[in-house]
């Protein structure tokens, strides 16, 4: 039974309160664009070897549905071929639940995009946000197709669980502790383990009466890789 659940589980959704994939449930088209500039790119406790990067995103939303395209481009590691990522996320939000299908591609600059079996990772996530009165966010993400295979070439259903809680502090500072966990052997680790523990502090810094830039600093500890990171970033968007 455990093996069946592990290999056939398809829990899908967007980590709506953890990722920049937010849409309005109103029956009208919404368009959002954003570009983040980060000092390093750490994903679920793993260093993406990208260094300083720009991470743009474009989101279209309608009636609870969303189509999000998110990318990451290295600005500093061109001599190593350059890290590059292109992700597509199709999601639906109903009340506090969000469901998404994601297509991850991170092969790098000058690499072909169309090798779906060998270079794309397809994931489903189910997320739940308890709301403003109790701002706890939970998500479950499982790879279900593509390049997520073990040494025998079989799908290994790599799974990532996360939890975060938002604290709103004086001076409009937002503090978000979070933890990530993988429940079985997969791309994150060879057994169940905590992948990352982090603390993120963010604030919008006002430059004028009409312009404010979001700024964040995040401390990350990755137990499975025995690594620590301190990442800073700023963003602009509409």
Q: What this model shows, in words?
A:
This protein is mainly beta and 238 residues long. It has a single domain, classed as monomeric porin ompg (Porin, Beta Barrel). It has helices spanning 2-8, 116-119; strands spanning 30-38, 42-43, 46-47, 53-62, 65-74, 84-94, 97-105, 120-129, 136-146, 159-165, 167-169, 173-182, 193-206, 212-222, 227-237. The strands form two sheets. The protein has a twelve-stranded antiparallel β-barrel. It is globular and about 55 Å long. Mean pLDDT is 89; it is low at 1-25.
N-to-C span: 47 Å
Q: Output the number of helix runs.
A: 2
Please give the order of strands in the largest beta sheet.
1-4-5-6-7-8-9-10-12-13-14-15
CATH architecture: Beta Barrel
Mean pLDDT: 89
CA gyration radius, whole angstroms: 18 Å
Beta-strand percentage range: over 45%
Highest-level CATH class = Mainly Beta
Ranges where pLDDT stays below 50 over 5 or more residues in a row are 1-25
Specify the structural class: mainly beta
Helix content: under 10%
CATH superfamily: monomeric porin ompg
Shape: globular
Number of strands: 15
What is the CATH topology assignment? Porin
Main β sheet profile: 12 strands, antiparallel, barrel
Q: What is the ordering of alpha helices and beta strands?
A: HEEEEEEEHEEEEEEEE
């Amino acid at each position: 039974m455990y093996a069946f659940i592990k290999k056939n589980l398809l829990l899908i959704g967007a980590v709506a309160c953890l990722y920049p994939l937010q849409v309005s449930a109103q029956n009208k088209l919404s368009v959002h664009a954003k570009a983040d500039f980060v000092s390093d790119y750490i994903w679920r406790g793993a260093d993406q070897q990208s260094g300083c990067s720009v991470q743009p995103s474009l989101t279209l939303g309608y009636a609870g549905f969303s189509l999000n395209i998110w990318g990451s481009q290295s600005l500093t590691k061109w001599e190593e071929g350059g890290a590059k990522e292109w992700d597509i996320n199709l999601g639906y939000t109903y009340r506090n639940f969000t469901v998404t299908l994601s297509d991850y591609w991170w092969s790098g600059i000058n690499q072909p995009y169309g090798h779906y079996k060998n270079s794309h990772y397809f994931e489903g996530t189910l997320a739940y946000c308890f709301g403003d009165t109790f701002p706890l966010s939970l998500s479950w993400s499982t790879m279900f197709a593509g390049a997520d295979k073990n040494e025998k070439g079989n799908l290994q259903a790599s799974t990532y669980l996360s939890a975060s809680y938002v604290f709103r502090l004086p001076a409009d500072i937002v503090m978000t502790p979070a933890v990530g966990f993988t429940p079985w052997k997969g791309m994150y680790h060879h057994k169940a383990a905590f992948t990352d523990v982090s603390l993120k502090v963010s604030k919008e810094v006002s430059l004028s009466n009409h312009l404010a830039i979001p700024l964040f600093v995040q401390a990350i500890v990755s137990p499975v890789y025995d690594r620590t990171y301190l990442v800073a970033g700023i963003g602009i968007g509409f």
